[in-house]
Amino acid sequence: MLMHPSLFLFYLSLVFSIFLVISANSWFIIWVGLEMNLVFFIPLMLSKSNKYSNESSLKYFLVQCFASVLIIVSALFLSEGIEMMECVVLSGLFLKMGSAPFHQWLPSLVEGVSWGCLMVLFILQKISPLLLVSFLMKEGLTYKVSYVAIVACSWFGSVGGLMSVSLRKIMAYSSISHMSWILMGMVLSNLIWLSYYSVYCLVLFSVLHLFSEEKLFSINQLILSNKKICAVAGLSLLSLGGLPPFTGFIPKFMISVMLLENSLYLIFIVLLSGTFLSLFFYIRLVLVSVVLSSKNMIFTYSANLKENKMSFNIMGLVLPSLFFLFL
């Protein structure tokens, strides 16, 4: 189905605002890029309206405006070398991308957003804040703030997912949980966190695209859906959780090796325990949707478009992991 020209223009402008932030050489231009990003994303949230979309859009607008105020006001004092101001900017960026401990708005917002907008929110909307966080992350107080965010993301994301039955909320808490590994990779190396984020986006897009195509929003709908869809969704979720040998395991393994090489045992244990909790609610989804509903599971071959999409989904989960083995 062709995209409406106005929506295409908003998506194009959204990408332009990201490039503006990336290429900016002053905090004012960065702030302008972030505000453009906000202005162009709100219409996308309202493009497929439901009873919660207006509330979600208003909530997103207010949160992003408050985060922008924190960033631009504290950025004015960065030239004076006040380290506390760097931490305030960092907090504003964490708030913008829904990172713990400033994450409360994200799970409550996702119920009014379509799967397509969630792809943008979880993937594109995090690029600018993450790059700015990597720029600000230095030795000293900002490192301590980053470690607080890493621990908070690991635990809040994992525990929140355990208490959710909505697939959109589970994906929101999953995003928060993965943020802990991304930030940890950022502490270790720019190449590591960029690799992790790229693989995460690939797997997440695969999962969200499947949910969007099948119009799945809750665990009950997943159970009642086609059994092949259940199987592919289960594999996708296990990959997202980082279970070997799927793609999601490789970047976590790379970060784990670097943590052990640098003797960061405590933070490694924290991240690993958070990942085990996350895997628990992913495996719970798989057990409920596949194993407990497997009595009527009948596989038949039919070469149609939906089959091809599912095959692409599975290849996207396994083949990239083979590529990373040779890096």
From TrEMBL:
<dbReference type="InterPro" id="IPR050175">
    <property type="entry name" value="Complex_I_Subunit_2"/>
</dbReference>
<keyword id="KW-1133">Transmembrane helix</keyword>
<feature type="transmembrane region" description="Helical">
    <location>
        <begin position="58"/>
        <end position="78"/>
    </location>
</feature>
<keyword id="KW-0472">Membrane</keyword>
<feature type="transmembrane region" description="Helical">
    <location>
        <begin position="28"/>
        <end position="46"/>
    </location>
</feature>
<keyword id="KW-0812">Transmembrane</keyword>
<feature type="domain" description="NADH:quinone oxidoreductase/Mrp antiporter transmembrane">
    <location>
        <begin position="81"/>
        <end position="277"/>
    </location>
</feature>
<feature type="domain" description="NADH:quinone oxidoreductase/Mrp antiporter transmembrane">
    <location>
        <begin position="24"/>
        <end position="78"/>
    </location>
</feature>
<keyword id="KW-0999">Mitochondrion inner membrane</keyword>
<dbReference type="GO" id="GO:0005743">
    <property type="term" value="C:mitochondrial inner membrane"/>
</dbReference>
<feature type="transmembrane region" description="Helical">
    <location>
        <begin position="229"/>
        <end position="251"/>
    </location>
</feature>
<feature type="transmembrane region" description="Helical">
    <location>
        <begin position="179"/>
        <end position="208"/>
    </location>
</feature>
<keyword id="KW-0249">Electron transport</keyword>
<protein>
    <recommendedName>
        <fullName>NADH-ubiquinone oxidoreductase chain 2</fullName>
        <ecNumber>7.1.1.2</ecNumber>
    </recommendedName>
</protein>
<keyword id="KW-0830">Ubiquinone</keyword>
<keyword id="KW-0679">Respiratory chain</keyword>
<comment type="similarity">
    <text>Belongs to the complex I subunit 2 family.</text>
</comment>
<feature type="transmembrane region" description="Helical">
    <location>
        <begin position="105"/>
        <end position="124"/>
    </location>
</feature>
<keyword id="KW-1278">Translocase</keyword>
<comment type="function">
    <text>Core subunit of the mitochondrial membrane respiratory chain NADH dehydrogenase (Complex I) that is believed to belong to the minimal assembly required for catalysis. Complex I functions in the transfer of electrons from NADH to the respiratory chain. The immediate electron acceptor for the enzyme is believed to be ubiquinone.</text>
</comment>
<keyword id="KW-0813">Transport</keyword>
<feature type="transmembrane region" description="Helical">
    <location>
        <begin position="310"/>
        <end position="326"/>
    </location>
</feature>
<keyword id="KW-0496">Mitochondrion</keyword>
<feature type="transmembrane region" description="Helical">
    <location>
        <begin position="7"/>
        <end position="22"/>
    </location>
</feature>
<feature type="transmembrane region" description="Helical">
    <location>
        <begin position="263"/>
        <end position="290"/>
    </location>
</feature>
<dbReference type="GO" id="GO:0006120">
    <property type="term" value="P:mitochondrial electron transport, NADH to ubiquinone"/>
</dbReference>
<dbReference type="InterPro" id="IPR003917">
    <property type="entry name" value="NADH_UbQ_OxRdtase_chain2"/>
</dbReference>
<dbReference type="InterPro" id="IPR001750">
    <property type="entry name" value="ND/Mrp_TM"/>
</dbReference>
<comment type="function">
    <text>Core subunit of the mitochondrial membrane respiratory chain NADH dehydrogenase (Complex I) which catalyzes electron transfer from NADH through the respiratory chain, using ubiquinone as an electron acceptor. Essential for the catalytic activity and assembly of complex I.</text>
</comment>
<dbReference type="GO" id="GO:0008137">
    <property type="term" value="F:NADH dehydrogenase (ubiquinone) activity"/>
</dbReference>
<feature type="transmembrane region" description="Helical">
    <location>
        <begin position="145"/>
        <end position="167"/>
    </location>
</feature>
<dbReference type="Pfam" id="PF00361">
    <property type="entry name" value="Proton_antipo_M"/>
</dbReference>
<keyword id="KW-0520">NAD</keyword>
